[in-house]
Amino acid sequence: MNRQDVFIAGAGPTGLVLALWLARQGVGVRIVDKTAGPGTTSRAVVVHARTLELYRQLGLAEEVVAAGMPNPGINLWVHGKRRAHISFGDAGAGFTPYPFLLVYPQDRHERLLIAHLEDMGVQVERETELLGFEQHDDHVQVRLRGPQGEESCEARYLAGCDGARSPVRHGLNAGFEGGTYDQLFYVADVIAAGPPADGQVHLSLDDADFLALFSYAADGQARLIGSIREDRVSPDRELGFEDVGERALHGLGVEVKKVNWFSTYKVHHRLTEHFRHGRVFLLGDAAHIHSPAGGQGMNTGIGDAINLAWKLKAVLRGEADQRLLDSFDSERLAFAHKLVETTDRVFSFVSAEGNFANFVRTRIAPLFVSAAYSVGAVKEFMFRLVSQCMLNYHGSALSHGSVGKVKGGDRLPWAAGAAIDNFGPTGTVDWQVQVYGDASDALSAWCHHTGLPLRVFDWERAHEHAGLTRNAVYLVRPDGYVGFADAGGKVEALRDYFKEIGYRRFA
Question: Residue limits of the FAD-binding domain (predicted)?
């Protein structure tokens, strides 16, 4: 009988990242996908700053950035003129090591993740379909059909990373409430020329014709995402790029030299009621799908995977009890609810039809964006929101304490300009204690005794500017969020925190 710690159904970015983080922590994984190979087309093109920060833990960030196209800003076009410009560099330079929007198509992204997974000795099993599963007290029994026929295997846990039509979700009889937008959209991989082919993101808001251009190479390679007008849609024939409205293309000033591939799709907004069902978890599109507004989908699935990976490892190794896995459901479900609501509002505004909607979108919105983005606080807020750096877990059972501006559940602030980068990878995916200033002898001794990594930074003005407090203790989770913040830094307070969350390793 084939037994694994974690069985992963689905080898898109969510499943691949989950497998990578688990394998890096020494957890046995098996990952299968019903496709014959990695994707060759995709809608997802954006990798946000928070994802890159998390990738840095495994030494992936710089490779991903080098392979993609860092976009320094977004431009809004109306009636053939650039009406507003949003600069990411200005907004995020003091907030994250990655103050840009990285355009990196999902198909290329997947191939990079697969290569790193193979380096760890894990192969994606292709043309292998999950037929069903049964939960037991201490394992999940999984039935598969692959190239060699049907088989059965056991895993301690099952992760459904198998997309919007998730067989794992259907096997749970879990709901997937939501709806479908009326508009038909297209995605095309093209060779583009013209002013917009300049390495930035360009959005055209001409009336009801929506168009977005994402450059991902210096030679004009770009991804187009746009709407197709209803009068072009016919049930009698398959749509092609010639059915794309030319008004938005001309208004953006883009010339399409070549179309490498083209596909149409409907946009959905759906959310399941729970991400954890006993020993079975739902992640990524299997748990939540939403509009492409803000390029949040793939990044959210990757966030799901990293949130779950370190918790699974702790429970599998007997370091923590089941309450830690319950926090995956509460933390990621709360974020997904906010995300679906936010992207739904933005998408409804962008795609709304009618004279009044057109007037607001083409006349009012560009003026509002330009005015608002000239205010420093608004500019930073917008960057934090879109980049997912604003995501926090304040309501989580794992979030305790506060010191100055930092609360338990916050993303650890990045200290820009500090002599030593407090986001620098430690080489392991583990908890750590950070102190900016002086750590007490008692804290140092306890961390050494328990094996809890302690990082002490000489106090600098950059730390104060980031909102950190001198000599305070910040207990940082393996995913870079503050679990516990304490001004006193007493060992008893840290020990009590671990006892309260059921984490035996340091209690």
Answer: 5-342
Residue at 76: amino acid letter: L
Residue 375 maps to which CATH number? 3.30.9.10
Same domain, 430 and 487: yes
Helices (H), 352-394: 355-359, 365-373, 376-386
- Look at residue 26 and tell me if it is in a domain: yes
Domain total in the chain: 3
The 10s digit of each residue's pLDDT in 131-181 is 999 999 999 999 999 999 999 999 999 999 999 999 999 999 999 998 887
* d(C-alpha 201, C-alpha 244), whole Å: 19
Q: What pLDDT is recorded for position 344? A: 58
Strands (E), 272-336: 276-277, 280-282, 288-289
| CATH number of the domain encompassing residue 296 | 3.50.50.60
Weakly modelled stretches of the chain, pLDDT under 50: 356-357, 359-360, 363, 373, 375
Dihedral sign from CA coordinates of 385, 386, 387, 392: positive
**Which of 299, 308, 310 has the alpha carbon at shortest distance from 280?**
308
> Domain residues for 466?
400-500
Shared-domain flag, residues 427 and 456: yes
Q: How far apart are the first and last CA of the chain?
A: 36
Classify residue 317: in a domain, yes or no: yes
The structure's pTM equals 0.92
- Distance CA(255)–CA(174), nearest Å, equals 46
